[in-house]
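Minutes, project huddle
Topic: does the predicted pose make sense with zinc ion bound?
PN asked that the exact inputs be recorded in the minutes so nobody has to dig through chat later. Recorded below.
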Amino acid sequence: MDVRKLLKASAEARNLKFGKSIHAHLIVINQITRNHVIEKNSLINHYAKCGDLSSARILFDKMRKRNVVSWGSMMSGYSQHGYAQEVVQLWRKMVNVDKLNPNRHVLPMVLSSCSNCGLLDEGQQCHGYALKSGLIFHQYVKNALVYLYTMSTHLKEAMQVLDSPPRSDLCTYNSVLNGLLAHGYLNEACYVLRMMIEELEWSRWDGVTCVNVFSVCGHLKDLILGRQVHGRLLKIGLDHDLSVGSATLDMYGKCGDVSQMRKVFDVLRARNEVTWTAALTAYTQNECFEEALKLFLEMDRENIVPNECTFAVLLNSCAGLSALGYGSSIHARVEKVGLKHDIVVGNALIYMASKCGLIDDARMLFESLLDRDVISWNLMINGYSYHGLGMEALDVFQHMLSELKQPSYVTFVGVLSACSLLGRVDEAFYYLDHMMRDYGIEPGLEHYTCIVGLLGRARRLDEAENFIRSSPLRWDVIAWRTLLNACLVHQNYGLGKKVADVLLEIGPDDAGTCILMSNMHAKAKRWDKASAVRKLMRERNIKKEPGLSWIEIRNDTHVFVSGDTNHVESVQIREKVKTLLAKIRTLGYVPDIATELHDVEEEQKEDWLGYHSEKLAIAYALMKTPQGAPIRVMKNLRMCDDCHSAAKYISKLTNRTIIVRDANRFHRFRDGFCSCTDYW
Ligand SMILES: [Zn+2]
Ligand SMILES: [Zn+2]
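Predicted holo structure (tokens), as shared on screen:
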């Protein structure tokens, strides 16, 4: 019987015991003591494959003469069991001590170990050797080199190897696309994708290819290509694959086609918790929060156990809806299954609490995290700024720096907003011009818009205008609207008019801009101008989005539309609003009818004001919640001046904390004051 064949068979079968008995037999017949390289190689290979690396290594170290197969067998054992460092160390010894040349099996193994350990220098030496020896023309060697350069983000070199012979195969493309996507190099991924479509037939694509291609489509929002690939993979029959299924859902979600996503999901034959979570994520990304929560009920019904990503997505949906009740029940479940300390879930909990107006709870969750990543810090800093608590935001930022955490692009959006809240102009410019650059962060539109808001808030309106006009940036509607809002608050109607002209040029059909302009004209008592804006809105069919407010009482959501009489308790609610307004008049409240859009008599304007959705919501909450309980209202538009003033007086009158989240920020009304200090 051929000993080598037996050892090979036992290695393939991972039968350690059988191989060991052969080893023992060889010792007994004294054959092993002589230097039989081939038999020893077979033994090493056997032990390495069976995972007994120390036995393999003892044999290997004792060999007086080793050939390239001995080295290769030992390396392959380390490589298969994840010891990439050992592979590279063996490679160094093989070249320097035994003076052996690698073959086409050893070289790719060393190259991929170099990639995994980030050892570019060694990898490049291998590249040099591959060129000299001609091994570069072997497919495995080429693929390993492409992988090395992509993973170390040496894209120029990666593309050079990719373009050189031999022709790239599926493996080459899969590994290069994988690497490019992992590092976010979308343009390059797109270039490689086009090359692949030209050179490789669709029928040869495998699951990994489809996942990669869907990922490119998703990032580029290329629905057309995504659909084509989906059609093809149905033909190849790859739709059974779990990861391909999730990638398909992900692609449709990122491209914004949720109905197609759902169709695909409903007919998927293989589904697990990852697939379900991909569908939930697609809904959440497209702000279909309710659909996400509904789908989760189905997931529960099918007894699929959610993972940490599932919970994070659900919490984000709750945050999007400000559905505190539902969010709390998810929170309880997270605690029950012991995922509270998972960082992804922990961050989602902070986000949910902050979005639902519970900034103190968010802080408590943040403090209780065992591990904090940059996202945790950003959530806290931006959360405080969003809640108008600039001081707290900057405190957390200082704390972050003292723990030597690296701030990111998003961190500075929160920090600059905080400076704006506090009127700290010089400090903000220090962050923008120095600190961000020290951290290697290029300031972007969001940061510059914060500066415009900051200067506007500090009454330095001309400076704000100069800042916009002198920066070579492509400003968007938001920045100019921020400036227009500042002109409105500080009653600088001259500049306001100029800014409005610019705005009408870049976004003439924007309802938000039109309303701000009309408000400005009305405040300046230029009624003709105000009515001209309204005429323009009618002509262009620009509709003001109806004002919508909602509150949650004992897990039920109550929605109020401005001027709406459909609520079952509509009569009582209006009665309540009337009494409230009458009572706060005695405290000094004066209805602000200037900004009301309707062409009606003053008295009727007051009436209209009383039916603004947030007033209805506050009145209803006062009727239905116990004395002293805080009131939380969510609103889709910016809160109007009149409701803002009324809410301040109502908080004083009823001794309640009223929290209103409008389209811009949180307002916390307490004892006659608002946390936004009347600037929003
Ligand atoms: Zn209002
Ligand atoms: Zn406010």
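Observations noted during the meeting:
- The first helix runs from residue 3 to 12.
- The pocket of zinc ion (ligand 1) is lined by residues 612, 614, 640, 642-643 (CB under 6 Å).
No decisions taken; revisit at the next huddle.
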